[in-house]
Amino acid sequence: MDSSNNSNTSEERRNKVEKYNVTLQPDAYGFATSYITENSSKDKSEAKKNHKDQSLDDENLSLSLAQREYENKTPKDAGQAAGAKSKSKGSFIQAPSIPTQMGPKGIRYDFNDGARVLLPKGTWHVQLEDEESGNILFACDADEGWVVSTKKYYVPFRIRIWDRNNLNEPLLDHILELKDREVLLKFPVGTLGDILGWFSYAEKFQKKHQCKVECTLAENIIELLKDQYPDLTLSTPENVKQKEPYASYCLGLFFCGNEDYQPYDFRQVGLARTVGYILGVDPEETPPRLPENPPRTISEPYVCIAVKSTNIAKMWNNGYGWDMVIDYLKELGYRVLCIDKEKTVGYGYVWNQLPHGCEDFTGDRPLKERAALLHHAEFFIGLSSGLSWLAWASGIPVVLISGFSLPICEFKTPYRVHNTHVCHGCWDATDVNFDHHDYFWCPRHKGTDRQFECSRAITGKQVINTIERLRRDYNLKAPKDRLS
């Protein structure tokens, strides 16, 4: 069955097939399955009684029933990027309820939410293939209804459909071809770092296939990126321009081992690189382009820091760490600017305040302003959070402090601070799943004196030594010594 019914047993699937009068061939590779709408005479008779348009003919009624069937079976929240707030309609705008491409004999198909075929009443044999490998992913006989691939990420699908009364030549033989076609890439909203890590893959995809790409993004990210990417259309989900795209793909982090929307578990390949694999392009990470040569507003040498995140596990939970680092930087003569969005974050009895000794540059400021401030900083110190990704995109050295994630998770930086002497890396462990609703998530040691030891054991000395190495690499003299 489709991804919403993956828990069905083999016996349940056989019963379902018999109910829907479908001949199901062995799903040998597990790559794709289908569901078939029933649309029996009884269903149509009942529907005609209740339908507002009593003149609806059988063909259009079948289409109406099939549309409702697809909408009921399509996952409404297939996946969610870390930090994104799920809305009632799910994290991504839904695919068109009816396939956008018209084939012969009233057959409709497209590649929105996987390979999709909608069959009118007839005697059909349907086959889905992977054109690159030649694997037959799924084949069945059907009288009418839906055939939808389980896999929703980029696959070079081939759809072939025969009339069972004439199996010599298919009525439809269509290979996915994206050149000059409209393709919608759906990014989640409510997250910053993920999008900055993923966005370059949209451009790689557009260049590889020479297609007309539209990306759905949050408005603040559109303002940051739109002038740097003239070949991509950037829209908010509410104002998407492509109403009937040929293909679309959901880009995100899919949890609980979901491999229908991602070919590899993101925890095994890295947060940014996972989207390269979803889109079938080179997964090598590339920072997005930001506005060039932004104006400098602070003349003195300064360092930016960000100390807060969306979950305590992501923060640096050493009680003395930030104070030690800020004192060290100020002794060197740096101004230390805290650029978090919020001055105070927390939940219940635990709250994270502005560190002592830094300057308060917090606030909900435009990302262009934040990027300009970062561009002229000598370096950035932060967590596994969105502002670290923005600093990476700004092209400055990043000292990244994280214990709950492994270095493979984030972008490459030689100044990654991690302590392997204690429990660490739970975010990337495939035997546990991140709980977005648990602010105190610590899957192995919650409620014990070892809770959050992954970051508590990262010392101020360890971070200062990393900064010293960075200064040697970039030949950064202490600001207090530059005038002498």
Automatic annotation (TrEMBL):
One Pfam family from the UniProt entry? TibC_1st
Annotated Autotransproter heptosyltransferase TibC/BAHTCr-like N-terminal domain residues: 103-164
Q: Which UniProt keywords apply?
A: Glycosyltransferase, Transferase
Biological processes per GO annotation? lipopolysaccharide core region biosynthetic process
Gene3D superfamilies documented for this protein? Glycogen Phosphorylase B
Please note every region of biased composition (Basic and acidic residues): 10-19, 40-55
* Disordered, as annotated region: 1-21, 40-98
This entry's Gene Ontology molecular function terms read: ADP-heptose-lipopolysaccharide heptosyltransferase activity
Show the ranges annotated as biased composition (Low complexity): 78-91
Gene Ontology cellular component?
Answer: cytosol
Identification of the protein by name: Autotransporter strand-loop-strand O-heptosyltransferase
Q: Which species is listed as the source?
A: Succinivibrio dextrinosolvens DSM 3072
Lineage summary: Bacteria, Pseudomonadati, Pseudomonadota, Gammaproteobacteria, Aeromonadales
